[in-house]
Structures are given as structure tokens and as C-alpha cells.
Amino acid sequence: MQERSPEIKEFIRRNAALFWYIPDDKKEDISDETLMEFILNYGSMDDVLQLKKLWGMDYFSSLFLNLKGRKKLNYYPEIYNLFHLYFSKYAQRNFGQ
Q1: Phi and psi of 91, rounded to 5°?
Q2: Residues whose CB is less than 8 angstroms from the CB of residue 11 and which lie 6 or more positions away in sequence, other chains included
Q3: Are 57 and 92 contacting, i.e. CB atoms less than 8 angstroms apart?
């Protein structure tokens, strides 16, 4: 994982309650996959839109659409279905480039 931007760190701090079981001094070290999972499952739509703005649609959709196995099961089925449909339809994907 590359160094986190100050904006992402602030976003994690604002949503710290979602990561209640992670010690405060470790919250900024969570993986992007974990951040996305908790925001999609437990955050507000404003949180989702803010994360999309911070990461950009390409990275956000790529991270989501490349989930495999157990990671997919960490999402509520209706949340996974909604965002799979959304990213599949609206994400810019340049295959072979």
C-alpha cells in the first residue's frame, strides 16, 4: 500500500466509529479493501460518494470489481449486488491498455 493522502487519513478519522474494533493508532493503517468494505456496508451514501471522489472512480471500481472469494462474502448481499451493478455499468474500464 502506498502512503495515504492527508485527505484519506482525515476521511478515516471522520469515520473512525465504523472501525470500532481497531485500535485508534492503527485505524489509518487499514487496507483500502477494508476501508471500502466498511464504508459500503456501514457508511452513509455521502461517505460512499466522498470516498469515490477521493479515490477516483477507476481505482474504486477496480478495487471492488476485483474482489475474490472470501472478500466478496464480507459484504451484505444487497450491498454487494447494488455496487456490482453500479460499478459494472458506470466504471470506465480500459481492457488491454
Answers
A1: -75, 140
A2: 50, 51, 54
A3: yes
C-alpha cell at 60: 474504486
Check residue 91 and give left, alpha or beta (phi > 0: left; psi -120 to 50: alpha).
Answer: beta
CA dist., res. 63 & res. 40, Å (int): 12
Q: Tell me the pTM.
A: 0.86
Q: Helix (H, G, I), strand (E, B), or coil: what is residue 57?
A: helix
Burial label, 91 (beta-carbon count in 10 A; 0-12, 13-18, 19+) = middle
What string of pLDDT tens digits covers the 97 residues of the chain? Answer: 568 899 999 999 999 999 989 999 999 999 999 999 999 999 999 999 999 999 999 999 999 999 988 788 899 999 999 999 999 888 765 433 3
What is the Cα–Cα distance from 79 to 85, expressed in whole angstroms? Answer: 10
Under 8 Å between Cβ of 27 and 16: yes
